[in-house]
């Protein structure tokens, strides 16, 4: 990797295919709007063509919009209770920033400079940043969750897996839909959808959806008086489609404005400076920081063009722009003290262009694609340590630009009616341009956040540079279908995630003879993934069973983190990102669905043995392997769920009674185990009763989530002293934990939702 002066790359034209597409005949069905199969199996487009869920030779879970509605799913984090070896949750101290892990691969650090390990796609558009990625579920056709590296079929290479959120296609009839929800904690949601053909022949169609999503807090902020863990969101989506004889086109735009209060954490220890108590309710907080006001705005548009010049050939173009701005007051110590207070701004935008050529004839199916992304991510934040030294602030301004291009191809050939070979490859070129400023202030916060502080000394980091990362990643599989009810496959794939620059790194702390750029940078990471799978339908197709066994060898694992440090003689906050070494993930996954007359049974089970095989860190200035004392974060060994639905007989319509349980074994929040932050094994109980009128004209459902009111941690912050090798927390002579940043001691947790009961009614005209 070479550090060079940054250069500008102009975005690619947005409409490369539009001029040629107009002369072609239409495709019979838009690939992203796959209908359900006649036997009730979901049709997915994981391989960019319509295939049933139980026949596609990939580890994939999928849920239709109706299934998600029946479960009372509010946003995509609900999928983590249904899909094996998946963790999805709001990031620490946020309402709408997503932390996602699949099979032990992911990323929970939301600051610029760190790419996500799991790709989130909204109608085939990759969301480059995790801010505003906790997508609320409305107007959805289906959601697909693909486990393992994805690169030969998708625009952006994702090393851990992908989640595809697919919105509904507009039909050729006037439709008005209303959905309302009311529940405890003053939950009140309303969604209105209107769609209609604009021409008599149905050539031009339009739809629009407005959503208002609100809920009171699960707790309160005892310092500011605000409710805590509340929800206050406006969202909307508009779509215009052309269903012509020669082209399918879709122009869509969406906007979300999240005005929820800041999510304050719960202190797990008494304040070491002020004696701030541990509050009885885990959803209560004493966090005093409330500036800037919490506010998240996200919007974007995309243009999808598809044409078929012949029965064998399909051409597609996907052009998109997205932008989001977040203001977040994050109070690490969760006290009224200005101890470790972090006001932050995240400002992200992206342009992307994807081109696809698909060819299918006889026994051959193939796809070739090109992808380009230009994205900028600006992260600005103060770390205010006023209790350490009056008015002391460490300010960070990190502007990271990503330019990436890739060419990818995937081909399959049916050697016989039962056996097929599939192979693909991807070449990725990533470039990072970084502009990082770290500056201490005295006398108050930085001017960016309206503080009265003045710059103290020279910047500890003032870096301008770039780095490029190139990688070819292959995929190959052998698939055997002995009959229409069984699919067996074996596959190998490789995943890659480019390196970057740590926005929190302090250049003046670089070892002698090492440049700032080398000290701030980290290398790409790579995964080699091996998988065996079986998908079968048994007992006259009443039982659907999907099994997968996998092994992943993970090298140069990127581990971002931050610690207390000293800069120019002053206490500060420093990044310590590293390529830890090697990890190995291996395990099995099972998903089953049984239909026994009026009774339906569903379940999944995942087991993963995830461990570091090498974890190199500096201890007393010497590289030391501490793998035996490190855990893979956000990756419980066991995940599973089981549910039963009984169709109760009623004079008209249908009435479904559902009960279910989901569970996870012990979850470690970070690589170093911490008894205050880590979550022991737990289970959640859910139930619902849903009536559907004949023809689906209206529905009424009552739902209960986490009925046992289980308390479980999802994330947290820690800045207290521990043993460098084992991580065991250390105490002073008085038996108190020793703060390493600030004076209060930071051990702060965030919690999953308590028991919620709500009713939802829908009306369709």
UniProtKB/TrEMBL annotation:
It is found in: Cell outer membrane. InterPro entries: Beta-barrel_TonB, Beta-barrel_TonB_sf, Plug_dom, TonB-dep_rcpt-like, TonB_rcpt_CS. Residues 54-162 form the TonB-dependent receptor plug domain. Residues 278-707 form the TonB-dependent receptor-like beta-barrel domain. GO terms for biological process: iron ion transport. Keywords: Cell outer membrane, Ion transport, Iron, Iron transport, Membrane, Receptor, Signal, TonB box, Transmembrane, Transmembrane beta strand, Transport. A motif (TonB C-terminal box) lies at residues 748-765. Residues 1-31 form the signal peptide. The keyword Disulfide bond does not apply. GO terms for cellular component: cell outer membrane. PROSITE patterns: TONB_DEPENDENT_REC_2, TONB_DEPENDENT_REC_3. It is a multi-pass membrane protein. Belongs to the TonB-dependent receptor family. This is TonB-dependent receptor. It comes from Novosphingobium umbonatum.
